[in-house]
Design a protein that fits this description.
Layout lengths: L11 E3 L5 E3 L3 H22 L6 H19 L17 H13 L7 E3 L5 H26 L4 H25 L5 E4 L1 H9 L1
Antiparallel strand pairs: 1-2, 3-4
């Protein structure tokens, strides 16, 4: 089987159910951005030792992302025919990990500049790609409803990557590069 099909040479591509859409259709844009996130997660995993505690976590996220992408590629009218099932606990899964990592760090009250270590920087990049995916999904949602579970999962996933990036810096003993304090912290400081 050849990797090239020549089916997309005219700017169209197939989606689940057989319909063909423009390659810059919002459904394709959203899915392409999710695919980009998945590739970035792969980079983070490649940077981590194989025995690192996050390998299983990130591997699970990658597998779940493939399921999410299959649903995004499926028009809502035939989504019940999609054999891939979205886990019902994706949001809780992310929130529990965010809470566990956050509980080990202090809130510095500042916006931070992405960077620090390669792992932290790539987690921050993953966070920004997820945010773009979320924007694309909301645009798609106006055209064809996206599952609320997917919307919530993508939102929490960016928070998880942010927390993981901070935790990576914390574990390495690296200070986060601060930009400025959060507005509510500045107001509080100015009033005292």
């Amino acid at each position: 089987m050849r990797i090239y099909t020549r089916g997309g040479d005219n700017g169209r591509t197939g989606i689940h159910g057989g319909e063909r859409v423009d390659k810059d259709d919002i459904r394709i844009e959203a899915n392409g951005t999710l695919d980009e996130v998945n590739a970035e997660i792969g980079i983070v995993r490649a940077l981590l030792p194989t025995e690192h505690e996050w390998q299983d976590l990130l591997g699970k996220i990658q597998r779940e992302m493939m399921v999410v992408m299959s649903h995004v590629a499926t028009p809502s009218g035939i989504r019940d025919k999609n054999p891939n099932k979205i886990s019902g606990d994706l949001v809780t899964f992310c929130e529990e990990r965010i809470d566990a990592l956050s509980g080990q760090m202090t809130d510095n009250g500042y916006f931070i500049l992405p960077g620090g270590s390669l792992v932290s920087a790539h987690l921050q990049l993953a966070r920004t790609i997820v945010r773009r995916a979320e924007r694309r999904l909301w645009t798609l949602n106006r055209k064809d409803p996206v599952s609320p579970e997917i919307m919530q999962f993508v939102n929490r996933l960016s928070d998880l990557f942010f927390t993981m990036a901070r935790y990576e810096m914390f574990c390495q003993g690296n200070a986060e590069e601060r930009w400025q304090s959060f507005l509510y912290k500045r107001k509080k400081q100015n009033n005292t």
